[in-house]
Amino acid sequence: MCAEQLKTDGLAIRPTRREFLAAGAVAGCGLLQAANASDSDKLLKGKAEYVISIWLGGGMGQIDTFDPKRKGDPKAKRPGAYYESIETAVSGVRVCEHLPKLARLMDRVTAVRSVHHEVINEHAAATNRMHTGRPISGTVKYPSLGSIIAHERGAANDGAPPYVLIGYPNVTRGPGFLGARDSYLYLTDTNQGPAGLTRPDGITPERRSRRNQFLAALKRNADPTTDQRLLDYDAAIAQSLKLSGPEFMRVFQLGREPADLRNRYGGEFGQRCLLSRRLIEQGVRFIEVSHNLNFLNGIGWDVHNEGILNQHKLIQEMDTAVATLIEDLETKRLLEKTLIVITTEFGRPPEFDSGGGRGHQGTAFSCVLAGGGLSHCGARGQTDDVAKKIVSSPVSVPDFFATICAALGVDYRKNLYNGDRPVPITDRGKPIAKLFG
Fold it and tell me: What pairing do the DSSP bridges indicate for beta strands 421-424 and 390-392?
């Protein structure tokens, strides 16, 4: 209805003042709803430049780390936490007693306590889910988050690869349908650089130069190709030859760091975190640091039965390394530019198994974000009194991925393309908007 005369069945009808005001109110509400919808759909875009993604293979128990609850008793089979909890720098947010260093820094951290997926007892499937953001498909090989960021942002400078994996290679970390150009460079030992870039002792600079000349001659004489797979492979070879020079390889010489700083980071996992900071400085965009190491308790984070007895050693090692990484990045004015992410394939239930350990739980678990220019609050999302069920602010894996993409300025609403087939980049995830406030 409007202020003009309306015609109905040939009769002129003039609206009353009450009808006119009512129509205006309805129209105003419609405009307000449209504006609110527009605000909620507004593309969120952070200012982070790098990601250090820490992978806790095996399944970190949220109730024993970042979402502590009342104390349980494995002998009496009473569900609950294995450890006591402590206060943090954020009022009302508590963490496990074995995270004292991170507790002091929780104002730079958000433990997302309400992550969930439906994978339960299959480590490989859950690992794939937490790297690609999707269920395993028989028809599509989806790219990992690292490859997505590499594809969208590339390296921060020409002298570095976009994506480095510190740990053992696995197809779930790979580029999927994006192709070899967006794959990772990997190493498994911080005492030396990537094996693929390290020249064997018998290959002198002169021999290497001759090999490069032969390769160049083969390329000149080969028929041109438009096959993207071959072009990506050639680009990967060219990048490898470039990166194997001394300028990039110096980044792996951790002995250049002050001894006291290296000691603060701790053992092998800590040295991996230190190397990740050096790689950031070199221009690497995305680094995954694996902590599924069996150095301390023999089984990593998969604490069934008696494996839980030394779980605290893993938690303490993570506490030392990640807290030092946060402080080190802050000292070098890199924390606001670097998003630290801690993920794992699933959590652990509050109940104890027959050996006193814990099984698997995907319905509610914790992942952690730190730095990256986000508005941190210590913790977001809430679970019940034994961290078994989500009671507020659930975050799906696509939502978590969308949050990371948004922090890096990547459009989480766009499509990638598997040939001609559009594939939503985060499976239609929505970022945690309050972290961008």
Answer: unpaired
Q: Are 351 and 359 in contact (CB under 8 A)?
A: yes
Q: Residue 100 and residue 335: Cα distance in Å, rounded?
A: 20
Helices (H) and strands (E) in the chain, counts: 11, 17
pTM of the model: 0.85
- For residue 133, the 8-state DSSP code is S
Which one, of 25, 33, 50, 48, lies nearest residue 280 by Cα?
50
Class of domain 46-197+252-436: alpha beta
Quote the CA–CA distance of 354 and 359 in Å, as a whole number. Answer: 10
Region 244-258: what's the mean pLDDT?
A: 85
Cβ atoms within 10 Å, residue 192:
13
| The amino acid at 252 | F
Spans of all domains in the chain: 1-42, 46-197+252-436, 199-243
Residue type at position 194: P
Number of residues assigned to the chain? 437
Q: What is the number of other CB atoms lying within 10 angstroms of the CB of residue 78?
A: 13
In this structure, the number of other CB atoms found within 10 A of the CB of residue 165 comes to 25
Q: How far from each other are the two terminal CA atoms of the chain, in whole angstroms?
A: 39
Q: What are phi and psi of 297, to 5 degrees?
A: -125, 5
267-280 residue pLDDT tens: 999 999 999 999 99
**Residue-by-residue DSSP string for 230-289:** HHHHHHHHHHHHHHTSHHHHGGG-GGGS-HHHHHHH-SHHHHHHHHHHHHHHHT-SEEEE
Q: How far is CA 197 from CA 161, 203, 419, in A?
A: 12, 12, 31
Non-local CB neighbours of 194 within 8 Å, separated by 6+ positions: 185, 186, 187, 252
Residue found under tokens 């605290």: 312
What average pLDDT does the chain have?
87
